[in-house]
Amino acid sequence: MKKKSLLIVLISLVGVCVMAQERYVIRGNVCNEDGQPMVGANIYIYGTIDGCMCDTFGHFSFETSLKGEATLKCTFVGYTDYVEKITIPVYKDVSIKMKPQSFTLDNVDIVASSFSFGQTEKIKSIKPLDVVMSGNSCGDIFASLHALPGVQTVGENRKLHVRGGESSENQVFINGMHVLQPYDAEPSNTVTRSRFSPFLFKGINFSLGGYDSEYGQALSSVLPMETTDVQTHDKFGLNFSPLSMAAGGTKSLRASSLSFNVEYLDLKLYDKLFPGKYEWDKPFRKISGEVQHKVEPLSSCSIKTYIGFDHTELGYNIPFSLFNANERKLGMTENNMYINSVCRLNFSRGWGFFAGVAESWLRNVVDGAMIANDEYVERKVETHLKARISKNFAGRYKLTFGAEDYIRSYKKSSNVNDYKNVLGMDYNSFGAFIVNLLKINSDFFLKASLRMENKVGENGVFFMPRTSISYIPNKCLQMSLLYGRYSQIIGDDFNIYGSYIENQSFSSHYVVSFQYKLPSTTVRLESYLKQYSHLPLFEDNKITLNGKGKSYGVDFFLEDSSISDNLTTTLSYSYNHTRRRYLEYVDDVQPQYATAHNLAVSLKYNIPQIKCILGLSENIASGRPYTNPAEVGKLQYLTKPYFSTGINVSYLASPSVIIYASVTNLFDRHNVFNYNYIKNPGADSGYIRKSVESSRDRFFYIGIFISLKKSHAYEISNF
Description:
- By secondary structure, this protein is mainly β.
- About 5% of the residues lie in helices and about 55% in strands.
- It has five helices and 39 strands.
- It starts with a helix and ends in a 12-residue tail after the last strand.
- It has a 22-stranded antiparallel barrel. A five-stranded mixed β-sheet has the order 8-11-12-9-10, with no helix packed on it.
- The protein folds into two domains: about 1-100, Immunoglobulin-like; about 115-645 and about 655-715, Maltoporin, Chain A.
């Protein structure tokens, strides 16, 4: 009955939101300076999903419900973007002439081993929703990145594991400043999500390897995200689902804007409608808030300040079993706060300056972790300071140099059977970097950088060179070679138990990249090699840094919309071979989280007549290794392959309402990620085992996004 009631409410909302809109035709033609038609050029109304591609004669024609002033934009690979202010419905039957784009350091985009989202306004995109409205993402930024090559499927938590690396080897940055804890609280075998609203960001640049020396403390990958700029008009929006309710808005001020967003998420209703595998005593519940102030006192100066806070509670019953002798209620309470403030200045003659400070606080309390009534408390604090200066010399040479400092505090306490134990440490890590970007000639670009790091108070100084050379003869073709050496302080859980002269792990990246891009097709092929050293290793009943590892593979990516203007197909495949001496594994083994083969296929079909976007996705991964204690060795077997089919629909019910629905693991595939065995074998010398699975196999998500101001729902970014 409850399911039917929920469905009736949603259908009613859809019916209320559908409104008849008067349509206006925008038409004309696009050509180059020689008068040749620009076949396949994208032309659209900026900030909307209204637009089309030019036909074989360079003609375009599309409809829009907008009236009055608007911005028309036309883009084509290798040409400067055409932007014009127009008045609807007056604008029609016009000719647009595109100019070739000259390559300088300011407009060249070296894409080797990185993927960008949201930084360009593509036709038929719904920003920022198109970043997260993909199959199997359920509206989460990190989950949407699993459709990229090089990202491995770890289905029990869905954290980012890149090219054979641990999730902790990926670091997240907002406006260039480090985020200590980007994930929500994470009970075992439960999918974790990003702490940040997807509407906070205007651009995401995910680098899978070979990133330059500005970014440190990351062995595998970095995820820099840039927040939106000063808004020129007021916004207010709502979004809600059976899981959550959220509201946010922006007040435009003189040369500045003030934004806020609040969200309440509670899985209680969802768990009643669709019970999972856990007996929840306190279903996952989170309340969060975000505030951002942006000011541009001068055209050459911008200051952004962001404050985010979230409080999470959850608890579930762990019954007595062969695998859990201590029947108990496990509870978790987590508080996070993140403050970020940055200033950017652009001076004359190509000079630029950046300064920022970020503060992160994390406090996590776990009850009943091992036995009833025990308590574990973890506290982390980080201050990140950073400054850099850049100088562009006539568009042929760009110099960037800067320094940063990570000041960290870690404290861990436990109370088990009235026995209290407290461990803690304070340290800071200083880094300096220099980046040289040189345009050798019209086709070749060289980036050479160097990073130095030192743990303050110790003698060890580490130098890490990084370089890349790219061949870019035009906007279609790009080939690159990359090398870089990287370091990262070992996890606090290890660092707290010992003192190391060199408390950092290291990795070296070698990447060969090829990309060919047409207006409707992108093909990318990359091969890589990663070598690890000084990894944490348990040997002789102590933690050493004698671990090592190697990871190599091939990534393939294809995105195509040539079959139809309304159909976009994406395919990504990754092969990875990785072996490590790491933690409790004293021999070279494939890590338990690693998968050799990963395939992600997605289809997105736009139906402009009814303002609807349909999506279908399929994620496949080979089995993961596990250990059978009845056999000699470690991690000798593989689980069955992973399969997950996702569907989603985005419906523009009106210019101010979007309805989004998705289902992950549509066919309720029972995926197993590992096995737990009882400690002692039975009478027949066999070991009883229990599969490690996600807390839910299938997940439903329905979201309604409403704009209550004049802005459209696809501009619902409250920031």
